[in-house]
Amino acid sequence: CECIFSRFNDLGGDIKGGGKSSDAADKVVEEIKAKGGKAVANYDSVEDGEKLIQTALDAFGRIGKGFINTFACISDLIHRVHLRGSFMVTRAAWNHMKNQKFGRIIMTASAAGIYGNFGQANYSAAKLGLLGLANTLAIEGQKYNIHCNTIAPTAGSRLTETVMPPDLLESLKAEYVAPLVLWLSHDQCQENGGLFEVGAGWIGKLRWERSQGCIVRNKNQGMFPETVRDQWDNICDFTNATKPANINESVATLVEVLSRVEADEGIAPNPTSAMATAASGISPAVGQKLPQSTFSYSHTQCILYALGVGMSTKDDHHLKFLYEGHEDFSCLPTFGVIPSQAAMMDGGLGSVPGLNFDFTRLLHGEQYLELFKPLPTSGTLTSQARIADVLDKGSGAVILLDVHTYSDKELVCYNQYSLFIVGAGGFGGKRTSDKAMDISKRSNLTLIPRFQAALYRLSGDWNPLHIDPSFAAMGGFKSPILHGLCSFGFAARHVLKQYANNDASRFKSIKVRFVKPVLPGQSLQTEMWKEGKRIHIQCKVKESGAVVLSGAYVDLHAAADGSPQVLPEAGGLKSELVFAEIGRRIKDLGAEMVKKVNAVFGWEITKGGNTAAQWTIDLKTGAGALHKGPYSGKTDVTITVSDDDFMEVVQGKLNPQKAFFAGKLKVRGNIMLSQKLEVILKDYAKL
């Protein structure tokens, strides 16, 4: 066969384009001739098109037909006007757009560039070149809020008015293209890197589609044209086709191919998307429940989580989340994601029929959390997870996982995980769901310590992506990345501090979209602004300007009197009898007790890890008093203890000091006053 000459036209320069040598071209030509083929070397630049083509004509006597009539123009007027002209104008504006942190660029391509058109090789090449230019500008400009899109309009013009009938020209007037351009130019438009055909009042978005393809070589063996021929139908089979949206998704397939070749799986079609090949098994997965999971914890896990999302004793306001003896000790609201994780971490997803995918391809896309009451600082919670929906995003599949978490039978919080499975799309499913939670200035800057990911994983997310450099490299990261839910926690506590004075009881819900990872050692900047009752959030990496959390918000409850929420009593409390006796004794001997104690004691009696009753013993004013329920005054000391442990202490079966050090009895306020409990519980409250 005759060689395609342009493949072997090689200046032989270095990788930067400098120098000149004939060795490279000569070597390839010799190899072709040794195999019985015909080839000729050419040492001119491709810009010298005439010389290069003449070499082919001299050697083979022919090169083609219609195309040659237009080839000489490619580097001339058409390219200068369409491709180079667009490049030069954009380059002139680029730095101005970067400096003002805003820019919108619309390239005008053509259907001739997208599909090709006979006799328009020069024009088609220039127009498709604009699309490649636009796609790269969209990537490079994103961190500067510069968006670049491409349109391929069909509209009447001076060039078409002599070949189109008047009524068709009227239907294709430019007024039916301009609105798209105006929208893509608007600051509210977040479209970036899109390609749109437009004309006659119709707009359509285009994207690439790729077949599943076929591996055509074995380990440690060559690749041959006969194998390509034999597998051609598989190579061109668009069943379960994927729709790669960027170069990373494109390259991801090659990573899997290399893995399969290394595993010596042999020549095989459709190397990607295990989920897509079993598309019929996906729909039944919707509505399936995962095995129920339980999560038991103490104040230790609450404190560990707070440290994991960056809380520190350097800030006095953080102490209420870090010290179990603090009078307002609370659990951070975003701790609500931790109990729900057990549904996935324990292999629950893998047990659902129809969800057969590679877990190393799972990415966390979005997270929604809503609290129905403040989280208890200890207890046992039960979570029930359910597949709400499965969506086909082309380049991957999205699983919407709903997780409801209960204390006893009472709903405490609700999470929705949006899980993206790379390479699992193309199964013909729907792209959107009405079951997905909707996403609709102030600023806080925090340095993420290098140990933060190592610390956060102690809360239960043991994915080696966040600690093992070699595992991170397999995922395409230069170093281990921070957990998305750790960034989630940072953002939530920034809002809690700025807008709720760190009052965890005011937290209602949070929704975020994970855009890019954060590396430990980078600085996380949380931008916040309030619209009505909703706090909107955007998080960026200060060093690069990259947005890492977007479309995010926190909803807060209105400020109340600050009284802790008390759960309804279930089945009565044994401690009721003790407090009834204490009340009777205060009535009889209150004045004497006031002299001995001179303090106000608050009691929080828990059941199942949640506050079930509140009592206040006022032995400081008058003849003393006993109050049930929220107390409007200030207590000197507040004691939190379970109903069972309270009875053990009262009956002398549990030493109060041992109970305190075992974490069964928690004291907030003036801890020394707890020594006077004996006066209340022993001398006057014996049963």
UniProtKB/TrEMBL annotation:
Keyword vocabulary terms for this entry: Fatty acid metabolism, Lipid metabolism, Lyase, Oxidoreductase, Peroxisome
What GO terms fall under cellular component here? peroxisome
Gene Ontology molecular function, alphabetical: 3-hydroxyacyl-CoA dehydratase activity; oxidoreductase activity
Task: Answer whether the UniProt record assigns the keyword Lipid metabolism to this protein.
Answer: yes
In terms of InterPro entries, this protein maps to: HotDog_dom_sf (IPR029069), MaoC-like_dom (IPR002539), MFE-2_N (IPR054357), NAD(P)-bd_dom_sf (IPR036291), Peroxisomal_Beta-Oxidation (IPR051687), Sc_DH/Rdtase_CS (IPR020904), SCP2_sterol-bd_dom (IPR003033), SCP2_sterol-bd_dom_sf (IPR036527)
Q: Name one GO biological process term.
A: fatty acid beta-oxidation
Record keyword Oxidoreductase present = yes
Q: In which pathway does it act?
A: Lipid metabolism; fatty acid beta-oxidation
Q: Which domain of life is it from?
A: Eukaryota
Residues annotated as domain Peroxisomal multifunctional enzyme type 2-like N-terminal:
295-423
Q: Residue limits of the SCP2 domain?
A: 581-682
Q: Where is the MaoC-like domain?
A: 445-547
The principal localisation class reads: other
Q: Which family does it belong to?
A: Belongs to the short-chain dehydrogenases/reductases (SDR) family.
> What's the protein name?
Hydroxysteroid (17-beta) dehydrogenase 4
